[in-house]
Fold this protein.
Amino acid sequence: MVIDTAPDAIETDYLNSFYYVSEENLFRISADGRPTGSHTAKIYGNIYSVDPTNPMKTLVYYRDFNTIMFLDNMMTQVGEPVMLQDLGLERTSVVSRSYNNGIWVFDSGNNELIRLDAQLNISHRTGRLNQVTGFIPEPVSMIERNNKLYMNDPQRGIHVFDIYGTFLKTLPFKELNDFDVYEEKLFYIGNDSLHSYDLRYLSDSAIALPGKDSYSVRILGDRALIKSGKKLSLYSTRN
């Protein structure tokens, strides 16, 4: 399946739907290519990231306005937007969903990870990460999978934390535009190939991609959604 579009970002959910962002617009597509919903809120500017880990309450992050919005399964706004500055978070750079409807936020002003629970109360915070890691992360994205938080810092690699924010290690994958974690594998694009890195056995395998401009990847079961130039394509992840 190929869809002609040039999205700013892509995501998938456990229902095998996928989402793509175009400026302030969010679109949802079924696994067989049918449009199943869309949302636009121009007042908050462009969408920076989307996290449909819970597709009944999809998180939409507007970084320029330091604001989070939630959407239900009909792609309709749920409740009032969360103004992060009202929670004392003046400078956030990336956010992601967490277990039990929590939210991870990287506070770039204080250089720390903060976890908010479902009531938006702080449940965990790391303190200044440079005191733990020896450097100041500059993340462009992060996701929580399998009780771990993965933070993509293109200059240094993918930093891994446990669900309490304890720093575990840095995976040596630098200069990545994007990545995904599915089951026990980390997927990324490099050298015109889709790579699958086994997080248990520390082994890497690759599948050649036909295009040379592939940029982002998200996994839907045994298929990979690839953002490549001005199109989205689905490929098998089976060797």
